Structures are given as C-alpha cells and as structure tokens.
Amino acid sequence: DAPRVLVASHMDEVGFMVSEIKPDGTFRVVEIGGWNPMVVSSQRFKLLTRDGHEIPVISGSVPPHLTRGKGGPTMPAIADIVFDGGFADKAEAESFGIRPGDTIVPDSSAILTANEKN
Questions:
Q1: What is the tally of helices (H) and strands (E) in the chain?
Q2: CATH code of the domain covering residue 69
Q3: pLDDT band for position 62 (cuts 50, 70, 90)
Q4: Least crowded by CB within 10 Å, which of 27, 56, 76, 97?
Q5: Domain ranges, residue 45
Q6: Tens digit of pLDDT for each residue in 96-108?
Q7: DSSP states of 66-114 as a string?
Q8: Is residue 8 part of a domain?
Q9: Three-state DSSP state, 26
C-alpha cells in the first residue's frame, strides 16, 4: 500500500533492439532513440546478450543502386537495415544466446581531435 515512485530519464546511448532473427542468421531491429538511417549502414556494433556476452556485428542495407525508383535512390528505413554476426543460420545465432529483445549498441570509442582539446 506504500506509494510508488517512477524515476524516468533519457538513455545515455542510443542503440537498437533485436526484433527478429531471420532464417539466414541475420537480425532485424527496432531503434532505441533517434537514428539517421543514412549513417547506420556498414558500421560496427556490439550485440549484448542477456547472459552478458558481447557479440560483434555489422550493419548493412540494400545498396543505393538497387533502391532506385522513379525519383532516384531512396533513403533506407531502419526496418530495412540488417545486422550480421556472421552466423550460418538462425539456429547458430540462437546457440550463441541471441534472442529477440537483446540490445545492439555502437562499437565506438572516444578520440581526441588533432589539437587534443576535444
């Protein structure tokens, strides 16, 4: 019967959540936070499993020359971007503990600029 309190805040890092493991072992995702789809493809990410494993993955999408319509190349949607961990199929991905709901975060690190001020 005690009062309940909800503490809500923004996330420190944007990312993705696995929404589907496809039969070929790649993943479809939903975004966590705001992403510009133009900068997501061909980047390195880490998939974080529920049991604490970090699995390197890379993002990919349909090449622009294959998306040309009457108006030229189209911008990919997040739903069209696929994440690939190099698995042969869905069963192999699952054998590494990957499940829908696991998160994917950028595999990046902070750097100093040439003048070492930032």
A1: 1, 6
A2: 2.40.30.40
A3: confident
A4: 56
A5: 15-106
A6: 999 999 999 999 8
A7: GS-BTTBS-PPPGGG-EEE---SSHHHHHHTT--TT-EEEE-------T
A8: no
A9: coil
Please give the tally of structural domains in the chain: 1
CB neighbours of residue 101 within 10 Å: 9
Q: Which tokens go with 53? A: 């494993």
This prediction has a pTM of 0.78
Query: Look-up: residue for tokens 């902070």?
Result: 110
In a domain, 100, yes or no: yes
pLDDT digits (tens, 9 = 90+) for 4-20: 888 777 656 789 999 99
* Whole-number pLDDT of residue 92: 98
Residue pointed to by tokens 């192999």: 92
> In whole angstroms, how far apart are CA 60 and each of 11, 48, 67?
25, 18, 14
Tell whether 112 is covered by a domain.
Answer: no
Whether 80 is in a domain gets the answer yes
